[in-house]
Amino acid sequence: MQHNQSQELFQKAKQYIPGGVNSPVRAFRAVGGSPIFIKSAKGPYIYDEDGNQYLEFINSWGPMILGHAHELIEKAVSDAIQNSFSFGAPTRKEVEMAERIVNMVPSVEKVRMVNSGTEATMSAIRVARGYTGRDKIIKFEGCYHGHGDSFLIAAGSGAVTMGVPDSPGVTKGVANDTLTAPFNDLTALQQLIDSNKGQIAALILEPVVGNMGCVLPEQGYLEAIRELCTKEGIVLIFDEVMTGFRLAKGGAQERFGIMPDMTTMGKIIGGGMPVGAYGGKRDIMDCVSPAGPVYQAGTLSGNPIAMSAGLAMLEYLDNHPEVYTRLDEVGLKITAGFQDSLQKLGLNFTINQIGSMFTLFMTPEKVTNFETAKSSDLPLFGRYFQAMLKRGIYLAPSQFESLFFSYALEDNHIEQLIQANEEALKEVI
């Protein structure tokens, strides 16, 4: 493949955009080489500026669950555009979207629309603090909740620790109110809660982590967290920006049968358009202005184009349960194919998969948290990524990102991926 246009665009972009990209992972720093500039996409394929075709498994980091440029969503956007682009005033679509989310997501009784997943998580934390009158929050090492100051905190070496800023510009004051614990470690979590008794407003986590690669909660872990939060009066927030409407139509909370107090959403509810939302129990959400004292606002919140696209997506998912049956089948087929190849090649790597979320970790260790994820051979992953790319397979350009499968994948696409994976592993080992 030739990538001359992409390389020229990247050089030009670096003159005008920090690092040449508008989101860091896109720069390919973790895998080497220059980023591919995308021109178009349809179904399971994307096409770059040089005309190369790729079978891709990012799906805009999750929202393209039906595949790219699905005709129903295209029509919804086209129809909505005829009525102008934004009003900054209430619309029917906002009400219909809110009703659809409340009907689909088991724990949500009221919901507020925002413009991104980051905005949703930032707002949810503020509401939880206002509701409880407490300041501190708990997050888990390796869980990513957007770039809000409260979330850019790295765990220290101990299991019980105050956070330290993980990015310049995050103040020590903010860091002091963010407590961190390793994922899947109940003992560390209990110690953290005990040492900050009565001070913790919220605990936020990805019920299935997507931002250290795909990492699943261990048996009983989410149940135990629910019990702890109930006992201590802590608002439990599920960040379902990735898992919402993907692992089931009601998200991870439906799949696992665990009800959080609040839920943050994004990506899929816009059908690919910029959007987010947060919702939860009625008494918590009634703290939000103008119903209550916790202020949050946005001119573009509930944008009619995003609402139309997202509503078309959610209506389809709500009315077609076979989507989830097929996505589970796709995930299991790909996992089985990869495992067969690893066995054939004598490789002892780890695969984590649930439904349409999947990661091949370049480590023999069982990956249950960020520390074990970091045992992966990152240079090897970079070579593997490039070997897959030249075979027409576009993966997430980081070991620490989940892959997402779409409903547009057919059996021949699955076979293509499995074959390319085996060939790429042979090349780089």
Would you kindly provide a written description of the structure presented here, covering whatever features stand out?
- The chain has 429 residues and is of the alpha/beta class.
- The chain is built from 14 helices and 17 strands.
- It has helices spanning 4-16, 71-81, 92-104, 117-132, 172-176, 186-194, 221-232, 251-256, 282-285, 304-319, 322-345, 370-373, 378-389, 411-428, and strands at 38-42, 45-48, 53-56, 110-114, 136-140, 153-154, 161-162, 164-165, 178-181, 200-205, 235-239, 262-266, 276-280, 350-354, 357-361, 393-394, 403-404.
- An eight-stranded mixed β-sheet has the order 4-13-12-11-10-5-9-7, with helices on both faces. Strands 1-2-3-16 form a four-stranded mixed β-sheet.
- Helix 2 runs antiparallel to helix 10 and helix 13 (378-389) packs across helix 14 (411-428).
- It is globular and about 55 Å long.
What can be said about this structure in brief?
By secondary structure, this protein is of the alpha/beta class.
